[in-house]
Specification:
heterotetramer, A mainly alpha (101), B mainly alpha (676), C mainly alpha (347), D mainly alpha (238), A: mainly alpha, 3 helices, D: 238 residues, Four Helix Bundle (Hemerythrin (Met), subunit A)
């Protein structure tokens, strides 16, 4: 048995879907945030795996950019969470319902 | 000279722009100087052009740029000057210059002085473009341009309601004619694949060389004539011209007597190669022209407004021109056009001078005996009236006589030519009558105006000078047309219409008429002798006929004058009683044959009703109702959809995930080999 | 590059680890002695000659004490947090080169454990993981002082890590590599300064980066004057208030080992690592040189602690973001410009 | 089975288990710790894929910066407000799990049936080694082919920083004369009177000694008066 790209893709898919389920099933906004980060990282694995398979570095570049953008997203996201929790005094996403109607 | 052609229309345009942009604030009271100088510059250039064409007999052609290019349709902005154009150029710029000078005095003190002198050169620009265009689309541009300027100038006193209405009437009535003209242009393009009439690929070349079905040409000719009907105020679209007298008098003189209204005649003359092949269309033109002439003259006999009389006279004279076109007397038409421009401009300016001297009084019943107050105006007016009446040896006599002769000699149908000629003679009688009715009522007899308020006086020199010049031309211009049909004027213009040169057989490729084709036609027509003429060639007219016709028309004109003299000077007939005895007939004439009423009743009123119905039922009820219904439906749907927006982030995330699953599933179903 | 058998690397790594542990032990002795000297007192004297056995006694004492766990603590996190600090501190030493490849005992031996091509970043990465030990331990203690200490540590480390990393960018640009071995080798070339020929130590070409690096390194290791996470006078003992016995000793070990590793790191990056007179002929001289350089840095640490008062918290953050960050970016820009100019790519 | 496959399975196993733990853990701090573990595994995976630079960046950025920040925020918000995993929304959770499973199947099918099309690049291991390693090769790639994207990412980061500062700034901080209270110190929101639970309306003027500890509650910090009336901080049990 050889280590093929399919292994990495499978791992990536598994992590992505675990993250997705976390996003869908948890209510704590911080955990949702963690799961989103997990999804991004999982996608980065896919990029890197394809980069290795096709002998290009583009995939790694994309993964790098994905990490950079995730960092920006984390900064803004955490600031949002902080502001929200300061206002609503909760981290339960179900409490954040000002978007309704 | 060809490369400077563009300067001729450009100068007035620049003057107009300058007056609108700069003079408006800088020196509004001196705007006339710029405009007059520019038009005068155009006149000088036109003289140069004329000289060159007179010497060389070569048409000048300048292509400035490509205008529109779309598929196989391509039109350039090109200027073209042959003998016909040269004559028109001279006439237009000359009369324009005089009118500009005259208006400098007439419009003095008007609060919108600069505006007047912005529109007037703009009109000159458009008119010059019209006569110099080398294709029908550019003609149409100039055509619409003069229409626009006419609208602006008729409505110059836009605070006066009647002026505004007259402007709108002129514009709308013209639009009907323009519609026909536009259709004609389209038909020309679909038939010939080009709109340019000059050159080897031009329309005229194709007509004469390749031969096009007469049916198509008839339609084209009729459509072009529709345009001419509107612009040149032929029956049944003549109604706008008398109303256009709401504009300032110089405008009436320039636009509604000398230049713009002749644009239709020019168009027909310019299209002579088409018309010549168009068969029955020519007959239609001739009949309409003769009828218009009679119609205008008959109405003019009973009008009391000095400008209106002159205006109906214009309608009548335009009818003569159309008649000339219709009987194939091309040169005569142009000859009459130019001569008419001089004496009719003189008449208008003279009536303007009268009005000016009478403190804006226009009713001739309140004038009389003005001869001694304004002698220059009187003499010039008299000369112009004589010319208009067609008295030997003034310009009007020669041109009108040619037309009547040409009508007599034409034979579309057996005897029709003779009827037309007799009809024209009757009209000439009426013309002489109403012109001298005007003279006697205005300048002779007792002074019927209020001496306390009105102090008639002669106009300033700046106004009388153009009158004198124009009167001089009204006298002397006829010399160019002597002897009839063989004068210098005819020599000069004949190549345009008959492709024949009296000077040089080589120099006949003007106006797209190839020398050989038309020459053959002409020569065959000539060989056929007295019987073998007609619409396809220059009518062959014997000297004897000319002499007879001249004598007859002179007698007729003098009779008309005599009748007027007897009635209005000698009071042999009590006009008031006569009118009351024949009240129906009088009212019929006074109310202009009830044209306006009929139009109001059977066209305008139903249209208004239809518009109101469309507005209330279709627009408000149908279209707006549909829109409101859509709005309501959207509101309802949005209200339902609004429930989707729970505000719960988890639901949104769930929706996104669902979309992802569906998309991936769709990919599998549609693109992958998984299920195949 | 790395063709020696794995077991030799293991042996070398074992050696390094033990050296670090012993070095850490005697670092405490060194510190106490130095502090004593600077404060005009003796320091440890009783245990062993000149108190030399004091660290061993301390170690035995710490191992022998009772392992107290607060009832409210989150046990698993409480257990693992000190280990994180300790492990990450030690792992950083894996990429420090103590010299090139030598020939001894009839074999080719590498005087480094591994040569990663991202070695410098590797050190930074593990030092950034180290902060988890502090913050998690603080949180798990369920103690307000500890939590505050942890929060301070988190903020401080995140801030100063930026300075630390960026201050090295100039060095990376000059060396053209992230590998510590390449950087070390680059510094063994000669630099012509007019009549003078010196080794191309990066402290010469990157003085500003060196100063910034030192400041950031002190903050990164939570040492005075940046020791706010454990500020005794404010937070009792900061994040390790609730820790005792060997769990506390892991924090203790971790802190001192990271000091040693950072010193070695700085010596490698800026002071030419093992380079020095005669080091190219005798590898042991090289090892000696790098140790001496590291000890100089360690002395600097102690000196700072003995001299400077603690920063106030807002001063600490303000210094990082308003002073050091612009300076470090300026350093990068200037270095890049000079580098481009020397390649003829600028102007 | 070669070594690297065994190692991969080890790493993958730890990664998936810790990722599952992230979702399942009740305590957000545990989630964060498990995510850190997972990220380190992902970094290891990157190393196995020959992307050393990516691995280090993964650790520095994700583990060293993002997660630390997250822990920071986690400790700033009210631990008592953390919602329970098992409460509420059974339908939502069921649908979420179902969707996850379907997507897993779909992606597994995609991975199994996929074929790679397109050209092989030139970045083989030998070529990468020739230009000086992964970092060097990646640098060349980024600063030549992807320069524009790189600049855009830098803009995104700058804007992200500004946005974060604006968002996290206390709302009234811009107002002059506003005293800063909700910051990191003894006066952080958990300690101010703003954060008092509704039940704590009655003044608890008791000292630590005089107030008996309720049964089943761990070490409770009960301080005299404001602002420290919040009994539990950090990772203590409730």
């Amino acid at each position: 048995m050889e280590l093929t790209v399919d292994h990495f893709l499978g791992l990536s898919a598994a992590l992505f879907i675990i993250g997705l389920m976390g996003v869908l099933m948890r209510r704590n906004v911080l955990i949702i945030f963690l799961c989103v980060e997990l999804m991004v990282a999982a996608v980065a694995i896919t990029f890197a795996a394809f980069a290795r398979e096709t002998n290009t570095l583009d995939g790694q570049t994309f993964a790098l950019f994905a990490i950079a953008v995730a960092a920006a997203e984390a900064a803004v996201g955490l600031a949002l969470i902080l502001a929200l929790s300061r206002r609503v005094r909760s981290v339960d996403v179900d409490e954040y319902r000002t978007l309704r109607d | 000279m060809a490369e400077y052609l563009f300067l001729i229309p450009l100068l007035p345009l620049l003057a107009s722009a300058f007056n609108l942009l700069v003079a408006r604030t800088a020196f509004p009271d001196r705007a006339n100087v710029v405009a007059t100088l520019a038009v005068f510059g155009s006149f000088l250039l036109s003289v140069l052009v004329f000289r060159e064409i007179y010497n060389d007999e070569h048409a000048l052609h300048q292509t400035i740029s490509t205008w529109i290019e779309s598929g196989s349709f391509s039109t350039s902005i090109g200027l073209y000057a042959d003998q016909l154009t040269a004559v028109m150029l001279l006439m237009v710029t000359f009369v324009s210059t005089l009118v500009h000078i005259y208006a400098s005095g007439y419009m003095k003190g008007d609060p919108s002085f600069y505006r007047f002198f912005s529109w007037l050169p703009l009109f000159v620009f458009a008119m010059l473009v019209l006569v110099m265009a080398d294709n029908y689309l550019l003609i149409f541009f100039g055509w619409e341009g003069v229409g626009l300027c006419s609208y602006l100038l008729i409505g110059f006193y836009h605070r006066r309601r009647s002026a505004g209405n007259a402007a709108k009437k002129a514009f709308i009535v013209n639009r009907i004619g323009d519609f026909g003209f536009g259709l004609g242009i389209m038909l020309i393009f679909t038939t010939f694949g080009t709109l340019s009439f000059a050159g080897d690929q031009g329309v005229f070349h194709q007509v004469t060389e390749l031969g096009v079905s007469e049916r198509t040409l008839t339609w084209i000719a009729l459509l072009l004539f529709t345009g001419a009907i509107g612009k040149s105020a032929q029956f049944p679209l003549h109604v706008w011209l008398p109303d256009a007298m709401e504009g300032p008098t110089p405008v009436s003189a320039l636009i509604h007597a000398a230049t713009m209204v002749t644009a239709g005649i020019y168009l027909l003359a310019r299209s002579s190669p088409i018309l010549r092949e168009a068969g029955d269309a020519m007959m239609v033109i001739a009949i309409v022209g003769a009828f218009t002439a009679f119609l205008g003259a008959s109405i003019a006999t009973v009008q009391n407004d000095i400008k209106r009389v002159v205006a109906y006279s214009t309608v009548s004279q335009l009818g003569y021109m159309a008649l000339a076109i219709g009987v194939g007397a091309w040169v005569s038409a142009i000859f009459h056009l130019v001569a008419h421009a001089f004496f009719k401009a003189c008449l208008f300016l003279g009536s303007g001078s009268v009005i000016h001297g009478m403190h804006e009084e226009q009713n001739i019943q309140k004038m009389g005996g003005l001869r001694k107050y304004m002698p220059i105006t009187f003499w010039t007016f008299l000369i112009a009236s004589l010319a208009n009446a067609g008295v030997v040896p003034l310009a009007g006599f020669w041109s009108k006589d040619e037309i009547i002769t040409g009508a007599w000699a034409s034979n579309y149908l057996p005897g029709l030519g003779n009827y037309l000629a007799i009809f024209a003679l009757i009209t000439a009688l009426i013309t002489a009558y109403y012109m001298f009715r005007l003279i006697f009522l205005t300048f002779f007899g007792e002074e019927r105006f209020d001496h306390h308020h009105v102090h008639p006086h002669e106009s300033p020199k700046v106004m009388t000078l153009p009158l004198v010049i124009l009167a001089a031309f009204a006298i002397g211009f006829g010399a160019l047309g002597f002897p009839p049909d063989e004068g210098r004027f005819h020599d000069f213009l004949n190549p345009v219409f008959y492709g024949e040169s009296h000077h040089d057989e080589e120099a006949t490729e003007v106006a797209g008429v190839a020398s050989d084709g038309s020459a053959v036609l002409f020569s065959t027509a000539a060989e056929e002798g007295e019987a073998g003429h007609g619409i396809h060639g220059h009518p062959t007219i014997t000297d004897e006929l000319k002499l007879n016709m001249g004598i007859v028309s002179t007698v007729v004109a003098l009779s008309g004058i005599l009748i007027a003299f007897l009635i209005y000077q000698k009071k042999r007939v009590d006009v008031v009683r006569f009118a009351s005895e024949h009240e129906g007939f009088y009212n019929f004439l006074y109310n202009k044959w009830y044209f306006d009423d009929v139009y109001d009743r059977y066209i305008v009123f139903p249209l208004r009703r239809l518009s109101a119905w469309l507005w209330q039922k279709v627009d408000v009820g149908g279209i707006d109702g549909l829109l409101l219904w859509i709005v309501g439906a959207l509101t309802w749907i949005s209200g339902q959809l609004r429930r989707l927006q729970t505000g719960l982030v988890s639901n949104y995330a769930l929706a996104i995930a669902l979309g992802m699953v569906v998309l991936v599933g769709f990919y599998f179903a549609a693109f992958s080999d998984l299920f195949r | 590059m790395n063709d020696q058998p794995l077991w030799l690397t293991f042996i070398f790594a074992f050696l390094i680890m033990n050296v670090l542990l012993i070095g850490m032990a005697y670092m405490t002795y060194f510190e106490r002695k130095m502090l004593g000297a600077m404060q005009d007192r003796m320091g440890p004297t009783r245990t062993g000659p000149k108190g030399l056995l004091q660290p061993i006694a301390d170690g035995i004492k710490l191992l022998g004490k009772e392992d107290l766990i607060p009832r409210a603590a989150d046990k698993w996190v409480f257990f693992f947090a000190p280990l994180i600090v300790f492990v990450t501190a030690i792992v950083g030493a894996a990429v420090i080169p103590f010299g090139g490849t030598i020939n001894a005992f009839g074999r080719d031996l590498n005087l480094y454990i591994t040569d990663l091509n991202v070695g410098a970043l590797f050190v930074l990465a593990f030092s950034s993981i180290g902060v988890y030990g502090i913050i998690l331990g603080a949180w798990a203690s369920s103690n307000r002082y500890s939590l505050l200490g942890g929060l301070r540590a988190a903020a401080q480390v995140v801030s100063y890590e930026i300075i630390l990393g960026l201050s090295l960018v100039g060095v990376f640009m000059l060396a053209g590599s992230l590998s510590l071995r390449d950087i070390m080798l680059e510094q063994q070339t000669n630099l012509e300064l007019g009549p003078l020929t010196v080794k191309n130590w990066f402290i010469l070409s990157q003085p500003l980066a060196f100063i910034l690096f030192m400041i950031a390194a002190v903050a990164e290791t939570n040492r005075a004057p940046f020791d706010l996470p454990e500020a005794e006078s404010e937070l009792v003992s900061g994040f390790h208030t609730e820790y005792s016995a060997f769990r506390f000793s892991f924090y203790f070990l971790g802190e001192y080992i990271s000091m040693i590793v950072v010193s070695l790191f700085a010596a490698t990056l800026f002071l030419g690592g093992p380079s020095g007179p005669g080091s190219s002929d005798h590898w042991y001289l090289g090892i000696l040189y790098i140790l001496i350089k590291a000890i100089v840095f360690l002395f600097f640490y102690i000196w700072l602690r003995a001299t400077l008062p603690r920063f106030r918290y807002d001063q600490l953050m303000g210094l990082a973001w308003k002073v050091l960050l612009p300076l470090v970016i300026l350093n990068i820009v200037v270095t890049a410009a000079i580098r481009l100019a020397s390649d003829g790519l600028l102007f | 089975m070669p070594w690297e496959v065994i190692i991969f399975y080890l790493i993958a196993g730890v990664a998936i288990l810790s990722a599952g733990g992230v979702v399942a853990a009740r305590n957000p701090v545990h989630s964060a710790v498990l995510l850190m573990v997972c990220f380190i595994q992902i970094a290891a995976v990157f190393v196995m894929l020959g992307a050393e630079f990516l691995a280090v960046i993964q650790i520095i950025v994700y583990t060293g910066a993002i997660l630390v920040l997250l822990l920071f925020v986690l400790m700033l918000v009210d631990p008592e407000d953390l919602p329970e995993f098992h409460t509420g929304r059974p339908v939502q959770r069921a649908i979420g799990a179902l969707l996850g499973l379907i997507l897993l199947l779909e992606v597994a099918a995609a991975v199994v049936t996929r074929t790679i099309t397109g050209r092989q690049g030139s970045a083989t291991l030998e070529n990468i080694e020739a230009v000086g390693g992964n970092t060097e090769a990646l640098g060349r790639q980024i600063y030549t082919e992807h320069l524009l994207a790189f600049e855009i990412v830098s803009m995104v980061l700058t804007i992200g920083i500004l946005g974060a500062i604006v968002l996290a700034m206390p709302e009234r901080l811009g107002v002059s004369g506003y005293r800063r209270r909700d910051t990191i110190s003894l006066g952080h929101p958990r300690g101010t009177d703003l954060a008092l639970p509704a039940t704590a309306g009655a003044p608890i003027r008791a000292t630590a000694g005089s107030k008996p500890e309720p049964a089943g509650i761990g070490r409770t910090l009960v301080m005299a008066g404001d602002p420290d009336e919040q009994p539990v901080v950090g990772g203590g049990r409730r």
